[in-house]
Design brief:
The complex is a heterodimer of chains A (201) and B (163). Chain A has 201 residues and is an alpha+beta fold. Chain A contains five helices and ten strands; from the N terminus they run αββββαβαβαββββα. Helices cover 19% and strands 47% of the residues of chain B. In chain B, strands 1, 2, 3, 4, 5, 6, 7, 8, 9 and 10 form a ten-stranded mixed beta sheet that branches. The chains are: A alpha+beta (201), B alpha+beta (163). The interface between A and B is medium-sized, with 31 and 30 residues.
């Protein structure tokens, strides 16, 4: 009997180690809170002007986790609500928030001047960057990320709204597209995924 | 209010005593005032009224929760404020993968119903502020209902991260 027990132990030990390893592997592959877009969406690439008037491109943000969002400052509800949620998510990260940048790309460069963009992004936090380009540059970027936007007819005072996709694209520190969020995602869920991306380096 | 109305009805009963008449007259005026207010103020209450402040005179959003406490349906038809030259009621909605806003003319509330003006849904779009606002300011906005009823609500001005 004891020899059988020994044999069992010898046989069981490696099996339990393998099982444990398998469990750990499963935990690492737990689903993201947001949608996984790895390999589906194009890597980060653009040439635009930031709120300080500097020409920037994707390499300017290498080493940072980048959240890319398209919107316009005259949008009273969905854009600031989404940016507010992102600000709250960054707040949850503590000092690690500095490892993240939120790039707000204007789909209304006519009204979103550099000066307006600067005041706007400053209101949300130091990690927020306002980007604008010519109409053709903005269109090129919207095609790259398959972002739909359209300027609606102005009212008698010339005010108009811009219908636009509400996607938040998240890129890792190497500029690879990783996750997709939207206006319905909560700050906690976003923060949870950002922490995982940051810890993965 | 019921008591005031009774006093108002008591005037013709006491015509011979001038003192009573004066007192009754005052009561009548008071009763009229109370009744006027009662007719114009709907049985509705607002809570959590807030404005998200953005820089550069950009259009702002106003949010609140509204409860119809009356026994009749009530229709919210608009809003006005001395602090803004223009206010629209909007509904954010998604069409063909794009977020957009619809101008709303009226929202009917059934008795007991709560209506949420909240990010990504109904909101007041507040345009052309008369003077620059600051965080923690209290701004009066009058909500207008069908039947010429209205309710003044104080909105608290909060930061860009307002949810």
């Amino acid at each position: 009997m004891p020899s059988i027990m020994k044999a069992c132990n010898r046989w069981l030990a490696p099996v339990s180690v393998a099982l444990l390893a398998g469990l750990v592997a499963c935990q690492q592959q737990k689903p993201w809170a947001l949608r996984d877009i790895s390999g589906i969406v194009a890597p980060l690439e653009f040439h635009l002007t930031n709120q300080d008037g500097q020409t920037v491109d994707a390499s300017s943000y290498r080493g940072k986790i980048v959240l890319l969002y398209f919107g316009y400052t005259h949008c009273p509800d969905v854009c600031p609500a989404t940016l507010g949620t992102l600000a709250l998510a960054l707040h949850r990260l503590g000092p690690d928030a500095d490892k993240v940048r939120v790039l707000f790309v204007s789909v209304d460069p006519a009204r979103d001047t550099q000066a307006v963009l600067k005041q706007y992004v400053d209101a949300f936090g130091p990690q927020f960057v306002g980007l604008r380009g010519s109409d053709s540059e903005t269109e090129a970027m919207s095609r790259r990320y398959r972002i739909a936007y359209s300027r609606e007819d102005p009212d008698h005072q010339g005010n108009y709204t811009v219908a636009h996709s509400n996607a938040v694209f998240i890129f890792d520190a190497k500029g690879n597209a990783r996750l997709l969020g939207g206006s319905d995602d909560k700050a906690d869920a976003i923060a949870q995924d950002l922490k995982r991306l940051i810890s993965a380096g | 209010m019921t008591q005031s109305r009774r006093q108002f009805l008591s005037i013709p009963v006491l015509p011979s005593n001038p003192g009573h008449l004066v007192r009754a007259g005052i009561a009548a005026i008071l009763a009229l005032f109370v009744c006027t207010v009662a007719t114009a103020a709907p049985s509705v209450s607002a809570a959590n009224a807030r404005i998200r402040l953005l820089p550069a005179d950009l259009p702002l959003a106003g949010y609140f929760d509204l409860v119809n406490q009356g026994k009749q349906p009530l229709t919210l038809v608009g809003a006005s404020s001395p602090a803004f030259k223009m206010i629209h009621m909007h509904l954010s909605t998604e069409q063909n993968g794009k977020s957009t806003m619809l101008l709303i003319e009226g929202i009917e509330m059934n008795p007991g119903e709560t209506l949420h003006f909240t990010p990504g849904s109904y909101h007041l779009m507040l345009m052309q502020p008369v003077k620059p606002l600051q965080i923690d300011d209290q701004v009066p906005i009058t909500l207008k209902f069908s039947g010429n009823q209205s309710l003044e609500v104080m909105f608290k001005v909060q930061g860009a991260g307002t949810q």
